[in-house]
Write a structure and sequence with these properties.
With 361 residues, the chain is α+β, with helices and mostly antiparallel strands. It has two domains: 114 residues, Phosphorylase Kinase, domain 1, CATH 3.30.200; 223 residues, Aminoglycoside phosphotransferase (APH), C-terminal lobe (Aminoglycoside 3'-phosphotransferase, Chain: A, domain 2, Alpha-Beta Complex), CATH 3.90.1200. Strands 1-2-3-4-6-5 form a six-stranded antiparallel beta sheet, sandwiched between helices. Strand 8 and strand 9 form a beta hairpin. Helix 6 runs antiparallel to helix 10. The radius of gyration is 20 Å and the shape is globular.
C-alpha cells in the first residue's frame, strides 16, 4: 500500500500506539519476517477519515499498519479481521491488492486488533494533479476508462471459487442497504445537521431489485487507486477494502460516483471535490455509467440511474456524519473532521435536487 510520502505525518498523540510492542509481535508472528528486525520509524497517513493507517519504515522494508479509530464505532465498519481476509482471499485472482503480512487479534498489544500489509510504491491522485504530472485530454479520458475497466474486472471475480461468497448475505442487498444506512444516519445524527427523512423515504419508495451479486469495493475512488510512478495510466493497486462485500454492482458504481465531481457542477458542491475528476477530458458521470453498462450489460437509463446516484450521495453523507459525530462528541480532536458537518448539509441538498429532477415529467 502507498499513500505517498507527502501524505505521511508525525503520529497524532491521540492515535499513537506502542511501536516497540508491534515490532516485537511482528518479529514473532509475521508471515514473512525478512526486513522486520529492529524498531521501525512510524508515520501516520492523514488523508483518511475512518480506519487509521500508518507507515512502518524499516531500513530495508516498508509496511503498512491498519487499525480502527478510538471512540464509538460500528463493528461492521471497522472489522480488521474481515478487511484482512477480503484482501487475502482476493489477492490470488486480483493482483492490485496489497499482500497481507500479518493479522493480530490480541488487543493487549496496542489496545485493538490490527493488521499489517506490504506497501505499494506508487502515485495517489488527490484533489488536484500532483506537481510534475500533466494529463492531456486524451490521457485523462484514458484514465477515466481505466477507472471503469478496473471496477468491471473486480465485479467479474468468482466469489464462490475464491471463498469470498461468505461475505455476502444473498438477495435483498439493495433493500438492506437502504434500511441499514438509514438506521446508521438516524443514530449518528447531531442536532446541527438535517434529518434526511425525505431522502430516506424516497430511497425506500424507489428502490429497485438487485441486479446481480458480485464482489464490490464499496469505497472505489480515484484517490484509492495507486498508479505507476512512470505510467500514470497503469494501476498497480487498489486501497481501503474495509467496506468490501458481496452485493449489487450498480450500488458500487453509484457509491463511487458520489465522489465524482465535474467541472460544471454546482460551485458549492465543487468545494468538496477530493479527486481530479474535473480535469479536461475526464469522463463525465453519465459517460461512466454508459461505459460500465456497455462492458457489463448492467444498463441503467438516466431515470433509473437517479436512484443509484441519490443513494451514493446519501451513503457518503452518512459516512461523513458518523465521522463528524465522533468529533462532535469529543471522541477525536482532529480539526479536519469538524468541516464534515457542512459536507453532510450540502449532500442532503444535492440529494433533494436530484429527487426533484426525477419527479419532473
Amino acid at each position: 500500500m502507498s499513500r505517498g510520502d507527502a501524505d505521511a505525518r508525525n503520529v497524532r498523540s491521540e492515535d499513537a500506539f506502542d511501536v516497540q510492542a508491534v515490532a516485537a509481535w511482528l518479529r514473532e508472528r509475521a508471515d514473512d519476517r525478512r526486513g522486520l528486525e529492529g524498531t521501525p520509524q512510524v508515520q501516520q497517513f492523514t488523508g483518511g477519515v475512518s480506519n487509521l493507517t500508518y507507515l512502518l519504515r524499516y531500513p530495508t522494508r516498508d509496511v503498512i499498519l491498519r487499525r480502527p479509530p478510538a471512540g464509538h464505532k460500528a463493528k461492521s465498519a471497522h472489522d480488521m479481521r474481515r478487511e484482512y481476509d477480503v484482501q487475502r482471499l482476493l489477492k490470488p485472482v486480483f493482483d492490485r491488492v496489497p499482500a497481507m503480512v500479518a493479522f493480530c487479534d490480541d488487543q493487549s498489544v496496542i489496545g485493538s486488533e490490527f493488521y499489517v500489509m506490504e506497501r505499494l510504491d506508487g502515485r495517489i491522485l488527490r484533489r488536484n494533479l500532483p506537481a510534475g504530472l500533466t494529463l492531456s485530454k486524451d490521457k485523462a479520458r484514458a484514465l477515466g476508462r481505466a477507472f471503469v475497466e478496473l471496477l468491471v474486472d473486480l465485479h467479474r471475480v468468482d466469489v464462490v471459487g475464491t471463498g469470498l461468497a461468505r461475505f455476502g448475505r444473498g438477495d435483498g442487498y439493495v433493500a438492506r442497504q437502504v434500511s441499514g444506512w438509514s438506521d446508521r444516519y438516524r443514530r449518528a445524527r447531531t442536532k446541527n445537521v438535517g434529518s434526511f427523512e425525505k431522502v430516506m423515504a424516497w430511497l425506500h419508495e424507489h428502490q429497485p431489485a438487485d441486479r446481480a451479486q458480485c464482489l464490490i469495493h464499496n469505497d472505489y475512488r480515484l484517490d484509492n487507486i495507486v498508479l505507476d510512478h512512470k505510467d500514470p495510466l497503469r494501476v498497480i493497486g487498489v486501497l481501503d477494502w474495509e467496506m468490501a462485500t458481496v452485493g449489487d454492482p450498480l450500488m458500487d458504481l453509484g457509491s463511487a460516483l458520489a465522489y465524482w465531481i465535474e467541472a460544471d457542477d454546482n460551485p458549492i458542491f465543487r468545494l468538496f471535490r477530493r479527486q481530479p475528476s474535473h480535469v479536461p477530458g475526464m469522463l463525465t458521470r453519465a459517460e461512466i455509467v454508459s461505459y460500465y453498462g456497455d462492458l457489463t450489460g448492467h444498463v441503467a437509463t438516466p431515470a433509473q440511474w437517479i436512484f443509484y446516484e441519490v443513494f451514493g450521495l446519501f451513503r457518503l453523507a452518512v459516512i461523513a456524519q458518523q465521522v463528524y459525530a465522533r468529533y462532535y462528541h469529543g471522541q477525536t480532536t482532529n480539526p479536519a473532521f469538524k468541516k464534515l458537518r457542512w459536507a453532510v448539509i450540502v449532500l442532503e441538498l444535492r440529494c433533494r435536487w436530484l429527487m426533484a429532477r426525477q419527479s419532473q415529467p
